[in-house]
C-alpha cells in the first residue's frame, strides 16, 4: 500500500492523505481486524456493565460493522486509528468532524473519546451516521490534527501497511485539516504536564456538553416552543412522526439547504406525511443543521481550553502571546 500527503494550501489548511486501494482479500482482512479490536474493547470497557448492556452494545456495533463492510471502509478506520495513536504518543489531541465521532467503531478504536452511548444504552437511538438501511452512505471521515504530527504520518502508515497488496494507481482520500486548537492543547499539555479529563468539569457542564445533544426527548411534549438543536434530533423527530427514514434523512441533509421550488417540494413532502404545523414552520426557517457528535467534540475542546485558562493562566497567556507574534 502506498500513501501520499498533499501539500498544505489555503486556510483552513488542508493536506489530505491518500492511499492505494487494497485488494478484496486485504479489505476482508482489515474488516476482521476492526471487528476483533472492537469486540475486545467492548469486553474491556463494558465488563462491569452486565451481560444485558453488553448485548445491547454489541447489537449496535454489529449494525455498524454490517454497514462498514457494505461500504468497504474498514481501512479508513484503521488508518485514522494509527493517526490518532500517533497524535496521542506525541501529546496532541485530534478532533473528528461531521458524523464520524457518532460511530461506536470510532470510539472503540480510540479515534474519538466521544462515546455515542454516553446517554445510556437503554436510551440509545442510533444516529443516521451511515444513512439508512435502504440507502447506506459513507460517514464523513474528516479529521483535524495538530500540524506537528503531519510530517510523521507518512512514516507511521508506511511502516504499518507497506506490505499490503493494493490495486495500483487507484487512491482513496481521507481529509486531514490542521487545527490550531489541537496544537494549542498539545502544547499546553507538554508545558503543564497535565491534561483535562471530563471529570474535571462540574456536573452541569458535563451534562450540557456530553449529554444534552443526545438527550432523548418525549415527542408527545414537543410544541411550537421547542426547536431542534441538531440534525440528528430533527431526523429522529421526523421519523417519530411517521416520515420514512430515507425521506427524513434527505430532508435534514439536503432539504434544509434547499431554496425556491425545491424548498416548496420538501414542504409538500411534509404535508404528505401530516407532520405538525410547528415542524413545517421550523423547516421553513432553518438553513443549516449541525451533527450532534460534531457539536460535542467542538464544545469539549472549548471546555479543555477553558480548563487550562482557569488552572494554568500563566502558561495559557504565554502561549497565546507566542501564537499571536
Give a brief rundown of this model.
With 325 residues, the chain is mainly alpha-helical. The protein has helices at 24-45, 51-71, 74-89, 104-108, 150-161, 180-192, 203-211, 231-240, 245-253, 260-272, 277-285, 292-311, 313-324, and strands at 3-5, 17-22, 95-96, 143-145, 166-174, 176-178. It has a domain at 3-182.
Describe the model.
The chain is built from 13 helices and 6 strands. With 325 residues, it is mostly helical. It has a 3-stranded antiparallel β-sheet with strand order 1-2-5. It has a 3-stranded mixed β-sheet with strand order 3-4-6. It is globular, with a radius of gyration of 21 Å. The two termini are 41 Å apart. Helix content is 53%, strand content 8%. The longest helix has 22 residues, at 24-45.
Amino acid at each position: 500500500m502506498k500513501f501520499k500527503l498533499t501539500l498544505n494550501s489555503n486556510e483552513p489548511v488542508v493536506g489530505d492523505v491518500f492511499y492505494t486501494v487494497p485488494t478484496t482479500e486485504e479489505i476482508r482482512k482489515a474488516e476482521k481486524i476492526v471487528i476483533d479490536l472492537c469486540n475486545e474493547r467492548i469486553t474491556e470497557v463494558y465488563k462491569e456493565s452486565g451481560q444485558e448492556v453488553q448485548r445491547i452494545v454489541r447489537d449496535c456495533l454489529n449494525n455498524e460493522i454490517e454497514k462498514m463492510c457494505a461500504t468497504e471502509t474498514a481501512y479508513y478506520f484503521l488508518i485514522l486509528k494509527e493517526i490518532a495513536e500517533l497524535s496521542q504518543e506525541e501529546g496532541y489531541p485530534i478532533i473528528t468532524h461531521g458524523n464520524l465521532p457518532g460511530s461506536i467503531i470510532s470510539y472503540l478504536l480510540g479515534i474519538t473519546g466521544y462515546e455515542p452511548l454516553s446517554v445510556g444504552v437503554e436510551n440509545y437511538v442510533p444516529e443516521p451516521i451511515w444513512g439508512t438501511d435502504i440507502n447506506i452512505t459513507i460517514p464523513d471521515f474528516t479529521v483535524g490534527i495538530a500540524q506537528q504530527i503531519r510530517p510523521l504520518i507518512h512514516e507511521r502508515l508506511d511502516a504499518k501497511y507497506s506490505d499490503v497488496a493494493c490495486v495500483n494507481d487507484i487512491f482513496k482520500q481521507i481529509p486531514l485539516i490542521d487545527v490550531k486548537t489541537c496544537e494549542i492543547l498539545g502544547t499546553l499539555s507538554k508545558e503543564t504536564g497535565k491534561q483535562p479529563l471530563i471529570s474535571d468539569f462540574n456536573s452541569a457542564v458535563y451534562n450540557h456538553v456530553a449529554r444534552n445533544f443526545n438527550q432523548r426527548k418525549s415527542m408527545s411534549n414537543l410544541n411550537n416552543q421547542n426547536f431542534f438543536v441538531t440534525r440528528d434530533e430533527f431526523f429522529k423527530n421526523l421519523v417519530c412522526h411517521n416520515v420514512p427514514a430515507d425521506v427524513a434523512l434527505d430532508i435534514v441533509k439536503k432539504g434544509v439547504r434547499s431554496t425556491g421550488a425545491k424548498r416548496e417540494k420538501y414542504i409538500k413532502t411534509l404535508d404528505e406525511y401530516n407532520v405538525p404545523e410547528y415542524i413545517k414552520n421550523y423547516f421553513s426557517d432553518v438553513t443549516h443543521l449541525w451533527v450532534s457528535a460534531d457539536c460535542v467534540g467542538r464544545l469539549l475542546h472549548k471546555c479543555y481550553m477553558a480548563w487550562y485558562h482557569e488552572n494554568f493562566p500563566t502558561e495559557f497567556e504565554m502561549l497565546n502571546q507566542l501564537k499571536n507574534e
